[in-house]
């Protein structure tokens, strides 16, 4: 399990932070697909939760060692959030780890993945607890699967990360969904981050929309820690 970091910038092009992305390899050094490890039904819930926790620790350590600039975005599966919500020791362990590494809680954004959740009320309660400890919450891939308006209204995140499909629709003359989520963010006092910025035209279009943050290959591709130290150059 290794970390890759992808930059996130403000609309002015200044660095805001990095999303940590997991890279998994087998014993022969071949890279495996990441998603099945977190969503496959054949893996016991306890294993998925432990894998999720281990990934966070790896990302935190690598961020401090190799990056340590801006905010850090960590993916969090709903099932892991539910587990953390039922175990105070999970919070204590996370807080002590962040403190040990010299980070402040408000630099950490937990991205709730678009997976469905068996208990939405418990999920919201768990995320609210995390916010009370000073951590920030982001909804990942808005517009895909369970990352919906209802989840956003329930969670009231700090940032809504909008899936590229909404930007593609906007640029093809179907602006309703993207305009709606921007309005929703304003209503809830949340920031908007649009994913999938792949070209200068994407960048300029999103900049005109007045959203706060952007992420995508045009901004910078994910770079694995063995490819550091240069992760981001101003655009």
From TrEMBL:
CDD domains: EAL. InterPro entries: Cyclic-di-GMP_PDE-like, EAL_dom, EAL_sf. It comes from the Bacteria. Residues 1-235 form the EAL domain. One of its GO terms (molecular function) is cyclic-guanylate-specific phosphodiesterase activity. PROSITE patterns: EAL (PS50883). Gene3D superfamilies: EAL domain. This is EAL domain-containing protein. It comes from Photobacterium chitinilyticum.
């Amino acid at each position: 399990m290794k970390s890759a970091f992808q930059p996130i910038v403000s609309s002015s092009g200044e660095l805001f932070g990095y999303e940590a992305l997991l890279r998994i390899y087998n014993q022969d050094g071949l890279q495996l697909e990441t998603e099945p490890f977190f969503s496959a039904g054949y893996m016991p819930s306890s294993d998925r939760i432990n894998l999720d926790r281990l990934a966070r620790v790896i990302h935190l350590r690598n961020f401090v060692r190799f990056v340590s600039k801006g905010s850090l975005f960590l993916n969090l599966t709903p099932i892991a959030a539910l587990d953390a919500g039922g175990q105070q020791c999970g919070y204590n362990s996370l807080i002590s780890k962040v403190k040990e590494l010299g980070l402040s809680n408000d630099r950490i954004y937990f991205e709730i993945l678009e997976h469905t959740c068996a208990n939405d009320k418990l999920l919201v309660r768990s995320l609210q607890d995390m916010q009370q400890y000073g951590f920030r919450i982001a909804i990942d891939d808005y517009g895909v699967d369970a990352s919906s308006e209802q989840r956003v209204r329930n969670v009231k995140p700090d940032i809504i990360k909008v899936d590229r499909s909404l930007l593609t629709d906007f640029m093809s003359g179907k602006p309703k969904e993207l305009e709606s989520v921007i309005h929703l963010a304003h209503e809830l006092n949340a920031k908007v981050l649009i994913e999938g910025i792949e070209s200068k035209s994407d960048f300029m279009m999103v900049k005109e929309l007045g959203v706060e943050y952007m992420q995508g290959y045009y901004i910078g591709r994910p770079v694995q820690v063995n490819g550091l130290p240069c992760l981001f150059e101003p655009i």
